[in-house]
Amino acid sequence: MTAYETVIGLEVHCELATASKMFCGCPNEFGDEPNTNVCAVCLGLPGSLPVLNAMAVEYALRVADALNLRVPERSVFSRKNYFYPDMPKNYQTSQYDEPITIDGWLEIDGVRVGITRAHLEEDTGKSQHVGVGGRIHDAEFSLVDYNRAGVPLLEIVSEPDIRSAEQAKRYVEELRATLLAVGVSDVKMEEGSLRIDANVSVRTPGSPEFGTRAEIKNLNSLRSLLRAIEYESDRQWSLTQAGEKVVQETRHWDEESGRTISGRSKEEAHDYRYFPEPDLVPVEPTQEMRERVRASMPELPAAQRARYIEQWGIGAEDARVLVDVPGLAAYAERAVAALPGDSGGSAKDVVNWVRQEVLAYINETGLSPAVLAPEMLAELVALVAAGTISRQQAKDVLAESLRDEKWPRTIVEERGIAQVSDEGAIADVIDRVLAANPNVAEEYRAGDEAAKKKKWGFLMGQVMRELKGRGNAQVINRILEQRVAGE
Ligand SMILES: [Zn+2]
């Protein structure tokens, strides 16, 4: 139970996966040799002129469609002026009062979180502080890599509609899945292609007014996001309870100490001296462009989950995992499609294997699910459904299949572990056993419960011995029932 309510708004910076940078032809590539993907434009050399990347505009329109955002007829770029060594132009080309998209929403577990805007801007370079702690104040010197300067970013700003750290995490998960589905970014938080700033304030539950907020910068994992919001809201509430004031400021999350640390006091927009970028024309997406984007939109995660629940009869949590783990849903779809129609195996069986065994393997090895061909998994599910192997045996077969990239049926044949499920073959054996023990069936029918049990056990044992222990117990039971009890 908490005595206060947390109010959260998130700013998510998403690096767009275009081939080239936002305003020049330099490659947009993560991890290249420092300062190799640079030119006069992204270094801000005098006389250079920017040209807008059309693909970045198209990506913004895709996100607009996915997040229910409106696209005004025109938007403009502005210069956001500030000095920092990782920004060679001394201003960031961004959008200010006329962004490319406004007024959208994203639904999280039945609740709509408003999205104020998503605007285009360029990324900055990257400073590396060389010294003991890797931080600026104890660094001996700093290095700057401008490869990232000018990489296209989409900044997605939410309304202060989020009410808990957990809900903030769910919002980012859903947003990340959506951005990945529409193909605009690889959304890798660990590589910085998705970065989050959280605006956090607290208030008495039910209060109509917002408290003073702090902006926590550059949260680079979902775990940091959760911990930072929890720490910061507790800190603010303790201050309020002690009669002190929360200061409006930027704070940094320190992963090691588990605390947020005061940064600079928060700038106001007028500190940046925004003005329209004179070297770029306004962006006016045509109707034709918008329609082309709309026609090429893929299925969104929410619709995808609903489809699996409906068509495959799986639970909501199963559907969520399939959609959230990159590549897993596509893998499951291919495995389901590869199931032989007459195998008796179901899509639900396939999903169970994918969620448990295949996912455990991915988590353990860090490999993509494609290591095990989906067709191989389908074959395994069919072998279990047909009674050729038990579920327990199938786990061993799968482990070997993953390790040696071998087809399950080949492993079953090599190991000689196939169960005999063929009804004709089992009936033949049962008839032979009954002929060799002519009195047993008679004694079974005449006996009491204990005697029945004993005779049944004897017959089962004889049949299993003939089948070298590999008979399918269910089938044997059924046929014995017809031959002995049913007469
Ligand atoms: Zn360049």
Fold and architecture overview:
By secondary structure, the chain is α+β, with helices and mostly antiparallel strands. It has 3 domains: 5-294, no CATH class; 299-415, no CATH class; 423-485, Orthogonal Bundle (Arc Repressor Mutant, subunit A). Helices cover 40% and strands 18% of the residues. The chain contains 15 helices and 13 strands. It has helices spanning 54-66, 165-181, 222-241, 287-295, 301-312, 316-324, 328-338, 347-365, 374-385, 391-404, 408-415, 423-436, 440-446, 449-466, 473-485, and strands at 5-15, 78-81, 91-94, 101-108, 111-122, 126-131, 139-145, 152-158, 194-203, 214-219, 249-254, 259-265, 275-276. The chain has an 8-stranded mixed beta sheet with strand order 4-5-8-1-9-10-11-12. The chain has a 3-stranded antiparallel beta sheet with strand order 3-2-13, with no helix packed on it. Strands 6-7 form a two-stranded antiparallel ribbon. A hairpin with a 4-residue loop joins strand 11 (249-254) and strand 12 (259-265). Helix 5 (301-312) crosses helix 6, helix 9 runs antiparallel to helix 10 and helix 12 (423-436) packs across helix 14. It is elongated and about 105 Å long. It starts with a strand and ends with a helix. The relative contact order is 0.09. The mean pLDDT is 90. Bound molecules: zinc ion (ZN). Zinc ion is lined by residues 21, 24, 26, 38-39, 41-42, 150.
